[in-house]
Write a structure and sequence with these properties.
The protein is of the alpha+beta class. The chain is built from four helices and four strands. It has one domain.
Length: 141
């Protein structure tokens, strides 16, 4: 396995920052990895050094995460926009998630944040962070 320094401006593709202790978030990360056939996305947990650095760079506390982030170059997406952008990129049939863009962002984000605040209670919290299978390790930062 090779490692390389990565930054938010790295042209290799968008970085999805997720909570690897959250069962729901980890399941979503696995979903992304298995359906991203073009291997566009790289993933970083907020518990990793890179993840913490990127959260802080964008004004968020990695110890109290409230949102999934998608970082692509200088652009950052969060909350419902981040989720929709991920699914749009995965291709058909997942790109149909773009239909949710007709719902105003303030309302989508309100629902997103409600789920995010309750994710540990509803879905559980891992004692250790989820670790990707070897075949995906080159996409994990």
């Amino acid at each position: 396995m090779t490692t390389r320094a990565c930054s938010a401006a790295d042209p290799a593709g968008p970085i999805v920052l997720f909570d690897a202790e959250c069962v729901l978030c980890s399941a979503n990360a696995q979903f992304i990895l298995t359906r991203d056939r073009a291997a566009r996305f790289r993933l970083a947990s907020m518990q990793s050094a890179i993840g913490q650095s990127l959260y802080r760079r964008h004004g968020m506390d990695p110890e109290d995460p409230v949102s999934l982030l998608v970082v692509e170059g200088d652009r950052i997406r969060q909350d419902s926009d981040a989720v929709i952008s991920i699914y749009e990129t995965l291709g058909y049939p997942w790109r149909l998630a773009r239909i949710f863009r007709i719902v105003p962002a303030w309302l989508r984000d309100r629902v997103y944040r409600f789920i995010a605040r309750n994710r540990y209670r509803w879905f559980g919290r891992r004692d250790t962070c989820w670790i990707a299978p070897d075949r995906y390790r080159d996409r994990i930062l």
